[in-house]
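Folding problem:
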Amino acid sequence: MIRAAFLLLVLAGMRLDAQIVETPVSFDSAAKVRSLTPALVARFELRPPVWPVEGDFVEARLYAVSTGGKVLSVERTNGQLERYMLAEEQVAALREAIDSGMVARTGSVVAERPTETADVSRGAFARNQMILSAAVYGPLIASFADEGETATALYLLSVGASFFVVNNVSKTTRVTSVQNGLATDGAIRGYAAASALLFAFGGENLHRKTYSALGLAGALGGSMAGFNYGRRLTDSEGQSARKASTLAAATTFGVLGATGVLESRDQERFVAAAVVAGGFAGYLIGPVYPRSARYSVTAGDVRLLPVGALIGLGAGAAPFLGIRDDSPILWTTATAGMLAGIALMDGAWVRRYDHDNVDATLIGLGTLAGGLMGGAVAILVRPIEEQGVVALLTGGSLLGAFAGQAVANPPLARGGEASNADRSVFLGTARLQFDPAALALTAGRVPGSHPILRLRF
């Protein structure tokens, strides 16, 4: 009996000793690249024999095996996982190639944080395209009919048929989150661009069906172009294309206003064409921003740039809102403020922190909440001039953005975690500290001094 128990203990110990543990490791020496996507493999110009994977795949990760060596885990487009055992010299060669590619291409990181890598999002693609069918494609198709009943029938048929078309595409085609986002965004931009160009270059008294036909072509073409364009982009590059397009179009509009072009009704067609050209240029140039930056730029970082643009726009416009005769001055200061806000956001937060999408959402909501509170103050202190209203809205939005940044508390760009106890936000050499506990005490009307914000230089 004792011998049998001893034998069981020995066998149990052997099973424990035989357990294999795999630990995730980075691909590069700086411990920045935690996963590889097809876009990054192409960016780093990885080829056999350094890169052993052939064919389409979704994502690849590297693991250290407790028994020795490394294993490369590759997720294929059909959901299957393939594992490649790599010797230490193979891992060293792969790491050297990625390090060289990072220095040659970006000087820093072009990959996303692990939670933001590209994933298969066929369901989201089908959902978004169905929404577009109901809100954009269907109404445009229905507008071809001259009778109400026929228009309703066309609308229902087009929306219903889109379900089968979209699902068939999503089942047979690999769809990443970047492709889904750009396909959705491209449909809206394509429709807007086609309508603007038709207005700019079309003749007078065009039939509504002409607008509908070209608008539908622009929406479908924009969606297809965005889908194909997103195939070779990372998350941050896809976000940068969208945001740069919007900001470039807004900058073009502001420059035209500063030069006095907007004051002439004869220039409306030129303005429409110029804004479309600016947006298209931003769409193409946008991905260069995260590629060429000598610091990490995540998708969340890019989403913060419009926040800086809006705050800068308000700050630049507020002092000159009362000037009616010098509108070019207003356009100039507003446009300059918008560009300055983008630059300050890049220097203060994008360089210092790595924001994910949740962080960007919190900061955006904080900006909105601060603006609403500023609007409430403007209502309570009436009467107030336009400059005062915009100043309160802008100031509230700025404080709300700082509060959102402090609540999000993103990790530092160099890899160190920002302290949870010291919720500080940096703006150049200044440091703004936010205390949520003081905010709660103030809201609860607790007696005493409860500083919510501290600004230190």
